[in-house]
Amino acid sequence: MPAITVGDALTLPSIGEVLPQARERDVVSVTTAPSGYEGEGFPVRRAFAGVDLAELDPFIHMDQMGEVEYAPGEPKGTPWHPHRGFETVTYMLDGVFRHQDSHGGGGLITNGDTQWMTAGAGLLHIEEPPEEIVMKGGLFHGIQLWVNLPSQLKMATPRYQDIRGGEVALLRSPDGGAYLRLIAGEIAGHAGPGTTHTPITVSHATLSPGAQLRVPWRPDFNALVYVLAGSGTVGIDGRPVSSGQLAVFGPGDVVSLGADRIQESRSPELEVLLLGGRPIREPIAAYGPFVMNTRDEVRQAFEDFQAGRFGTIPAEDRPGHDVL
């Protein structure tokens, strides 16, 4: 799991010590992501399955894509399909993925890169490994997160952000036992490069065996920790977590976690995603690729898609692809 590694974490800016009066967040729940398949058949773990949307708000859905070692000819993606009413955040840990949309956004992302797509009023897009990766196979591992948009921004003009791994803010715990890659939002006065419509924080943290991490967290944000690899504990009470589990925290100012002293050889460190955002607290009507506020708006999205109002597939990509 390379995704931007750090030789000596002590050379990075520190998030500082948490203030004594800061309130620790309790762990509300720990759930285990079930496995499934997406698109043309690549394996995923449904990170938010079984969790109330009210606790996830402003997030809607998250898949851990892989980790899988493909043989030549096996890599798969998704065909052209529509979206409206939210944003997708695709973060690659290992491998290469191609994105293209009907508004001209797209490109390749690899270790540590992020593609941030605001579907807004609607677009078509495709995600797939490039042809050379299909031919030779290889390791594939990534995350796709769906971020809701408030009602006044659901019909915003689509946009695309390409965030290279080298652009993220790199931070460390005070003792250097953990470091963070800040993709979007703010932690301890440090800002990530992602521009967000909905106020959120997205960060990937790595903890050495036995390390502890206490992260100051905005009290108006919710707080989620998803374990990508390894084992450890979350919350002030040290609730056990391991790969594929999601911890939901209650209110407070600090998110605490720790890495077990003994890790599996396949996952020598604890790797987690830290997510949080200001809840939108609006009704959600979601169906497939459309996330709106009412069922009428979802029906309108289907009608607009069928009428060709989401853009057109580039001519060179039409053969062999069917829009869902």
UniProtKB/TrEMBL annotation:
Annotated Pirin N-terminal domain residues? 43-147
Question: What UniProt keywords apply to this chain's record, in alphabetical order?
Answer: Iron, Metal-binding
> GO molecular-function annotation terms?
metal ion binding
Tell me if Coiled coil is a UniProt keyword of this record. Answer: no
Record domain Pirin C-terminal: where: 204-311
Residue spans crossing the bilayer? none
The answer to whether keyword Iron applies is yes
CDD domains from the UniProt entry: cupin_pirin_C (cd02247), cupin_pirin_N (cd02909)
Q: Which InterPro entries match?
A: Pirin, Pirin_C_dom, Pirin_N_dom, RmlC-like_jellyroll, RmlC_Cupin_sf
Positions contributing to Fe cation binding: 81, 83, 125, 127
Question: Domain of life here?
Answer: Bacteria
Q: Which family does it belong to?
A: Belongs to the pirin family.
Q: What is this protein called?
A: Pirin
Specify the species. Saccharopolyspora antimicrobica
